[in-house]
Structures are given as C-alpha cells and as structure tokens.
Design a protein that fits this description.
With about 80 residues, the protein is an alpha+beta fold. The protein has a domain of about 25 residues. The protein has a two-stranded antiparallel sheet. The protein is globular and about 40 Å long. The two termini are about 25 Å apart. The mean pLDDT is about 80. This is HIT domain-containing protein.
Length: about 80
C-alpha cells in the first residue's frame, strides 16, 4: 500500500477491561506536508472501504513482516 507517512497510536486503559491496541494509520501519497501530522487520523472525509479478502491479505503481510522482526514475540495466527 503506497504510504506517504505512517502514524501509529497506542490506546488502552487500566479500568474495566485492561487492554492495549494499536491503530496503524497509513497516509496516502499527495497529502500536503503541512497537513500530514493529523491527516491520517482525520476521518471526516470517510474511511477506506477495503473488502474483507484484501483486509485479510494485508493482515497476513503485516504479520509476516512482524514475525521477521521478532518471531518469538508473535502469537500464532488465530485464523
């Protein structure tokens, strides 16, 4: 996926269901530099409608790349 800039948010909380999750927000090419800091997180123009099959393929690609970085930290895929 062509990306001008990549933003990663770590979110979670200690109350209720203690958890953490990451949002990976790719910024498409062509966004003016002065707007890049917040554009990837701005959903006012909508979000991409990515078919389930393509989303699963992207998830596999991300998982494979992460396993190459730190294989011992990655859980097995849940299918």
């Amino acid at each position: 996926m062509p990306t001008e800039r990549l933003s990663i948010q770590t979110l979670g909380g200690q109350q209720g269901n203690r958890h953490v999750h990451w949002h990976v927000a790719p910024l498409p090419p062509g966004v003016p530099y002065e707007l890049q800091q917040t554009a990837a997180l701005d959903s006012s123009k909508g979000v991409l409608d990515i078919p389930d099959e393509e989303m699963a393929s992207l998830a596999r690609s991300i998982r494979q790349a992460m396993q190459q970085l730190r294989p011992s930290l990655m859980p097995p895929p849940s299918n």
